[in-house]
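YM 10:42: Fe2OG dioxygenase domain-containing protein sequence, as discussed on the call
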Amino acid sequence: MRQMSGISTFFTSLIAEAIGLPADAFDRFFDADQQHKLKIVKYPDGGDGVGQGVGPHKDSMLTSYLLQASAHRGLQAQNTAGEWIDCPPVPGTLVVAIGQGLEALTGGVCASTTHRVLSPAQGQGARYSIPFFQGVSYDARFESMDVPEEVRALRRDVLALSGGRRDDVEFTFVKGRWGHLGEATLMNRIKSHPDVGERWYPQLLAQIRAQQAEEAEAKTNGATSSQSFAGQTRTDQVSRRSKHTDGRVACR
Ligand SMILES: [Fe+2]
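YM 10:58: structure's back
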């Protein structure tokens, strides 16, 4: 974990430099002894485990790193045109995914990676992978980084060339929706694991479902979802409730 912590901090410093920021620009979003997450995942093949891949999603924080520990294909990422691209295992490498926190901080210059995992076909045996999720300080706030205008323009050019971004997953780290990056991360995890939310965070899950219902209604009415959920009072309520429960999420 310590090694990966160092690699992830170094890698985000390279990202900062690549987009015209000082190398230490992201350092303030990390705690001195930042907590990260790592898990070992088994995807059974098409026998009993059929359908146990992972649906399209974006990771939460700044960056995550995946070791594909067996030779199976299965990981796919979505490009700007909306096409799913295979990410076959390459020995001695890690796959790096950009998280929604980084997209929020850079105003979309670093677009979060939409990805999914397909289960191995029957008879291929189980696929194993080991993802490392770089943590971020719970209290880190949504900020707009000073990404130079010429770099922002490059991103706009890419989108213009491809006719906009086609993405199967909604971007949920909208500024104004949640107070802190850590809070947005917690809500994203509850949204991804509603069974865990039912048991441990029923009030927060109820808020997420209310938000989803509002967004669905706003879409139907042609309004933007962010306008429909910009209420400061609700954000404050979530902040108070989620702060004292955050430790339990970190333990699982
Ligand atoms: Fe992921």
